[in-house]
Amino acid sequence: MRMPLPRLAALLAAALSCLPALAGTPFDFDAAPGRLPKNVVPLAYSLAVVPDIDAGTIAGTESVRLRVRASSRTIVFNSLNERLADVRLDGAPVGAVESDDSRQLTTITLAQAMPAGEHTLSFSYTGKLETQPHGLFVQPYVTPDGSRGRLLSTKMESTDARRMFPCWDEPAFRSTFELTVTVPAGWAAVSNMPVARRELHGGEATTTFERSPRMPSYLVELTAGDLAAIGTRLGDTELGVWAVRGRERDGQVALADAELILGDYNEYFGYAYPLPKLDSLAIPGGFAGAMENWGAITYNDQLLLLGANSTLADRQTVFAVQAHEIAHQWNGDLVTMGWWDDLWLNESFAAWRGAAETERRNPSWKWWEQQDAARERAMRSDSRLSTHPIEQPVANELEAANAFDEITYEKGQSVLRMLESYLGPEVFRDGIRRYMRTRALSNATAADLWSALAAASGQDIGQLARDWTEQPGFPLVSVAASCARGARTITLAQRRFLLQAAAHDGGHWSIPLRIRAGGDAPHAQLLTRDGEQSAAGRCREPLSINADAIGFYRVKYDAATLAANTRAFAVMPDGDRIALLDDAWALALAGEQPLGSYLALASAMGRNRDSRAWEQVAAALGTLEHYARGSRGHAAFAAAARSMVRPVADSLGWDPQPGETPDVARLRRTLYADLGAWDDQRVLAEARRRFAHFVTDRSAIRPDDQETILAIVMRSADSATFEQLHTIARAEKNETAQRRDYLALMQVGDPALAEQAARIALSDEIPPQADAIRIRLVWLLAGRHPALAWRTFRDHADALLASNPKYAPLITAQRVPEYFWEGAPPEEIEAWVRARLPAEMAPDIARGMESVYALRAERAALSPAADAWAAEAPWHRSGEW
Q1: Which residues contact 473 (CB under 8 A, 6 or more apart)?
Q2: Catalytic-residue membership of 248
Q3: Parallel/antiparallel/unpaired status of strands 57-68 and 117-128
Q4: Which of 95, 163, 85, 94 is nearest to 124 (CA)?
Q5: Which H, E and C letters describe 20-43, residue by residue?
Q6: What is the structure's pLDDT at 8?
Q7: Selection from 35, 101, 14 nearest residue 340 by Cα
């Protein structure tokens, strides 16, 4: 069912009522948004902190050299949970000092106005050590031998440096930082810069780091604990990987990656990495991701360390995340967005550059093909009425945290790749190099980037780019073909693509098309108006308007062209085939084309082994099978789905062959996982056989295959089988393997065992450094037990969200409705979400609730269509069941 129009209108009105227009002008410090006045600017911090883990406090002293730009009686900066004492300006005590935690501000009022010029503000302060990953926080962990430890680390983005020390905590206020920390003498301490000196006194050590270049406060980093490192050197840059002592050797692959990636980026950006060292720090738990602190990148240890139980997927993730975070050392650190409305200048660029680097250095991974799944997630979000532009207004700290979503990351990455393809890689790189040189050690807006690309290309790239970054959504390109003596001419038109809206008006884009007819090389065409025509090969040849799936748009082909594409589908280039599948599925979801058109393409895959195409098909079939559960047609559809994918799975077999490429191995796991989910009895029997050996011999199943096989077994497990895996999980000493075991337990099919799985997800047997995966465990339960998963999450939301406090509001508003949409009526979910969030979250709540109604509408529309297809499928007539 569609969202009721009055309800949708109310949600959107709340979402859009207070969004200002974007300026689209080059960076100017005085014009940069923010809450802090710009009459007083920090130039250089000298900061000394003494954390007390047992007391949960920070004792600090701070001196800040200031530039007073105009005579003033007040100094205003950010602080949170801090109290200042002995506050002095140029050595003299000041007047009133007021710290307001509700506004996260400290205001110093002077007895007399200070004149313009340079001054020094100094004070001591007390603060709070955090127990969750923001600011300077304490992270407990358990080692493989069962001993417990604690370390300190930081997570400042976007507005949490103020939790560690009072500061001008907005990205436009770049300054230098000299940091000193006092910790136990047996601990190592790491920060953005190398150690300048270390002094021992009693059982403590005081470490002072070299002064940093000018950078924003959110990039300040400090990690301290019982850590050890391995290292190497690239030119003048020291490279290190730090981990809890005893695990540092698991960073060898990451260290080699960092050396390779840094060298490539030095060349690509045409601006050598400017810091003397680049450390990568493996934080046990802490936060579910990584943070690009300049010179000291912090990672959840599962994203950096690789051991004997790691899989190829783990290896791929480590390289890809490193490529993303090291790209930030230029896009984000060397050049920083002026304000959080241009966050995409950090994140989209790092995502695009990281993906390009991963593809370049690991071609057998087919990384750009894998990125298609991320692009599709972004397109699904962007096809809602409640979506937002890549550049979105940000007014305060809450909105800054809520800007980190798939539009900022995946859509931005896709748009940059599309622009690179349109301009050509060399021209685009020249523009990026100009951008880096011009804005180095400063801030930027999108307009600065467009100016650099325009200078490199000689084109008005700004107008084209703004179509994609300053308006929400994306276009659907319609293709109408005509033939004359076998030659095909196409007429093109566009309109905004929306999945569940009644109308499609609004929005217009300059669209960089990539057109391929038959086996020809693709050619570029910029579609700017409806009715444009183009020659497009011969009439019976296949045609792609989005060759290689690079463009961020949908294509709807006329019936004759779609028929030609379906006939030639199995032999089309991989990227063209993927784009056709993506578009046909989206058009079916939107009611723009019959489901049968998509399933005809999927059936035409034959025994082609392209992994991403099959992943797309398997995911679509899995969605349809899920929607059909409980219906009379479910058995027929599941049988038809099994028969479609089984021939390819059988041709691959369960075990890898010599010389097999990683994408083929991934395809095997994808197909067997889905056959197991669709109750293929042969697959279930083989998975159980392998699991029986695994119970007595952990090496009986390769680490790469464990996730697939364990999940298949759990879906039909009895209590004895469930307890076998539970026992293995509790006894497992390797955290990577243990997480796989717990994730598999959550996929159990039996309702009573699912209740037990829910209790396990909340229990103390999950180690403290794995707290961040608890919410993922509960989300997995929602696949087969939606009501149980919803109750479990609803009743324990505070604990489940505690490991990710910065993004908990965004998760609550958007992800909770999307993941638990089947667990309760929409009204119940919305009421619960609204009760937990402030009114400013209305845009995000609107997006989450639109997803709920859209998914319910999809299920209602697609289930009968899937039943009808299965009833007429050739597998039905052949009596497969």
Answers
A1: 382, 383, 387, 496, 497, 498, 506, 507
A2: no
A3: antiparallel
A4: 85
A5: CCCCCCCCCHHHCCCCCCCCEEEE
A6: 47
A7: 35
pLDDT at 631: 86
Residue 694 main-chain phi, psi, to 5 deg: -65, -35
Q: Tokens 């990451």: give the residue.
A: 254
For the segment 810-834, the average pLDDT, to the nearest whole number, is 96
> To which residue do tokens 């227009």 refer?
21
CB burial class (10 A; 0-12, 13-18, 19+) of residue 712?
A: buried
Share of the chain above pLDDT 90, in %: 87
pLDDT of residue 68: 98
**E-only strand ranges, 53-187:** 57-68, 72-78, 83-89, 92-93, 96-100, 105-114, 117-128, 135-142, 148-155, 176-184
Per-residue pLDDT at 18: 36
Q: Compute the distance between CA of residue 552 and CA of residue 375 in angstroms, rounded to an integer.
A: 8
Listing DSSP states for 72-101 in one string gives: EEEEEEE-SS-EEEEEEETTEE-SEEEEET
Q: The tokens of 386 are what?
A: 């409640």
Residue 217 has a pLDDT of 98
C-beta separation of 225 from 188 below 8 A = yes
| Whole-angstrom distance, CA of residue 701 vs CA of residue 543 | 44
Element (H, E) at 191: strand 188-191
- Closest to 571 in 3D by CA, of 518, 528, 622: 518
* DSSP-based helix, strand, coil % in the chain, nearest 5: 45, 25, 30
Return the H-helix or E-strand segment holding 197.
strand 195-201
Mean pLDDT score, 725-746 = 96
Where does 426-531 show beta strands of DSSP type E?
442-444, 475-484, 487-496, 511-517, 523-527
Query: What pLDDT digit, counting tens, does each position of 285-301 carry?
Result: 877 899 999 999 999 99
Question: Do 177 and 47 contact (CB within 8 A), yes or no?
Answer: yes
Q: Find out whether 96 and 130 touch, Cβ atoms under 8 Å.
A: no
Residue type, 366: K
* Structure confidence by residue, pLDDT tens digits, 58-108: 999 999 999 999 999 999 999 999 999 999 999 999 989 999 999 999 999
C-alpha–C-alpha distance, residues 483 and 260, integer Å: 52
DSSP letter at 162? Answer: G
Cis peptide before 122 (omega within 30 of 0): no
Residue 700 to residue 691: CA distance in whole angstroms: 8
What residue type is assigned to position 616 of the chain? Q
Q: For residues 865 and 870, what is the distance between their CA atoms, to the nearest angstrom?
A: 9
Structure tokens, 536? 């497009």
Tell me the sheet residues that pair with 119: 66
Considering 130, 325, 406, 830, which one is annotated as catalytic? 325
**What phi and psi values does residue 676 have, to the nearest 5 degrees?**
-65, -40
